Amino acid sequence: MDLSVRIGSLRLKTPIMSASGCFGYGVEYADVVDLSTLGAVVVKGLFLKERAGHPPPRIVETPAGMLNAIGLQGIGVHRFVREKLPELRAKGATVIVNICGTTIDEYVEVARVLSEAEGVAAIELNISCPNIKEGGITFGCHLGNTHDVVSAVRRATPLPLIPKLTPNVTDVASFAQAAEEAGADAVSLVNTFLAMAIDVETRRPRLSNGMGGLSGPAIRPIAVRMVYECARRVRIPIIGMGGITSAADVLEFLIAGATAVQVGTATFVDPFIFGKLESGLRDYMSRHAIERVAELVGTLEMPGGTRR
Amino acid sequence: MPVDVDAEVLFSTRLSDDYAVIGFRAPAIAGAIRPGQFVMIRTARGDVPLLRRPYSVFDRLRDADGRPVGFSIFNKRVGTGSRLLSEATPGATFSCLGPLGRPFTLPRAGSEAWMVAGGTGLAPFATLSEELAAEGARRRLFYGARTGAELFCVDRFEPIGVDMVLATEDGTRGETGRVTVPLARELAARSGAPPVALYACGPEAMLQAVAALAARYGLTCEVATERRMGCGMGGCYSCVIAVRTPAGGTRFARSCLEGPVFSAADIVWDDVDR
Ligand SMILES: Cc1cc2nc3c(=O)[nH]c(=O)nc-3n(C[C@H](O)[C@H](O)[C@H](O)COP(=O)(O)O)c2cc1C
């Protein structure tokens, strides 16, 4: 049975990865999870410099999901390369680094630093964080800006480049197209949905930042729909995510058109979930006599007999 | 190294409408628990509530031969997760991930240990008292609650030689007022020797007051914080607390990894209502 998939020039052992911001820098889990068994470890979003993040409370639970406004607390790309990357390499992890910027120059500089480092497999371009004022989502909500930042980083790095799209737009597939035209090797989606929760007793928002991003099972059907829409409009591979908690959820994304998936919120509940998802996927494949997981990608049967 | 076990509820002892001590069978966790550590408990099997809840370990449970077989928690019913736990009956199982976090450090030989607990902040002091007994240190527990009916498990501590000082805000048991009132008085009355190490767990306003007393008398003080947590493993960066950096600045530290026990002097307290 072959679980490997290709994302541009990158070959992943399995189609199942951790999602950025939900698995720290990966090293936090090195004692309890064999990082080399994941398709990839996608690390927390990194700027050029360290960032403090928002004051707590940073999360609040909602029905079948949660809101977060972490504010991209992080150690900056240089410390990451010095302090975290060597351990990730030693553990045999395939490392995808999620990068952020407040300006195009910052994205380019972070990408350059990572391209010169040893042990980075790909760059995920975070143009979709809803929780910071400048940068992030402002690139991801405007087609021209998406094109500009992707092309600029494309010129700066030979690494596989994966813009991560926001669902907070009317037509996400047009953003996937803009990324493809600008030279992206793949796109990943979805980041979180901008959302809000209010404490009615105090009439205050439940998060210090006011608003936050919704993730978890609550968003899965919308995420699946968005992956499906993108798959019909671009040729580059799609990495799907949003509320995955089971092997059936992984399969939904693959069938909708994702080549690979990421698991975020569910790893908070079960840090050992990756092995369980993989074995569930294997069970399905043997039940359906499928030899290569890639055969499953985009195999949705639409009523009326047209595929996809 | 934390493990995830399906832990069976061994008992649920109701202390009042809202409070209960709940025991879980989890030998793999119990053997490794250090005082101050916590366990992440999944309170439902499905997606609601989704996230695990952090619980400080109350007692380490042992079998007739003294082998660790499980642990108990001190549960206060506040939201959905704690309500599901409070309704659990023996035989039910819950996924428990632990033990997690940085434990208390024991005082230097010859020190007295003064523990300060507010409300459910009592939890970590059962195992800490036992551990300290092995060191032969004099142990005092300053324990406060809003009202006498919410001072629980007092007889859990007296038989193991812990001196109790009780306080309630409404004066229905022990001294009247916050627990930091008798603490401040006893600290002022000390002659200086032997040294005292302070340990505190409870509302952050109380932790902050204890930290201020420790600073005034130059005492070592560790506080067990209880921030809202997402994962307990360092993955989500939600349970942060502001701490001082060596360079004189501040940064947000993850209380699940660097805590939940911190040296009180390291914490930069929020402006909490006192
Ligand atoms: C606490 C938290 C932090 C996150 N941080 C990042 C981040 O740094 N960069 C990023 O691209 N996405 C971040 N995300 C979004 C996730 O990677 C993912 O896109 C989203 O949560 C949907 O997947 P899920 O439902 O499986 O969590 C974060 C999500 C959460 C819940």
Describe, in plain words, how this protein is organized in 3D.
- The complex is a heterodimer of chains A (308) and B (274).
- Chain A is of the alpha/beta class.
- Chain A contains nine helices and 16 strands.
- Chain A has one domain (5-296): Alpha-Beta Barrel (TIM Barrel), CATH 3.20.20.
- Chain A has a four-stranded parallel sheet with strand order 3-16-15-10.
- The model of chain A has no long low-confidence stretch (mean pLDDT 95).
- Chain B has two domains: 3-100, Beta Barrel (Elongation Factor Tu (Ef-tu), domain 3); 112-271, Rossmann fold.
- Chain B has a seven-stranded mixed sheet with strand order 10-9-8-7-11-12-15, with helices on both faces.
- The longest helix of chain B has 14 residues, at 204-217.
- The radius of gyration of chain B is 18 Å and the shape is globular.
- With 274 residues, chain B is α/β, with parallel strands linked by helices.
- Classes of the chains: A alpha/beta (308), B alpha/beta (274).
- Chains A and B meet through β5, β6 and α8 of A and β13 of B.
- Bound molecules: flavin mononucleotide (FMN).
- Residues 19-22, 44-45, 68, 70, 72, 98, 126, 129, 164, 191-192, 215-216, 219, 241-244, 263-266 of chain A line the site of flavin mononucleotide.
- Flavin mononucleotide (FMN) binds next to β4 and α8 of chain A.
Sheet of most strands of chain A: 4 strands, parallel
CATH class of chain A reads Alpha Beta
Enumerate the spans of chain B where pLDDT stays under 50 for 5 or more consecutive residues.
none
Helix content of chain A: 25-40%
Number of helices of chain B: 6
Q: What's the CATH topology label of chain A?
A: TIM Barrel
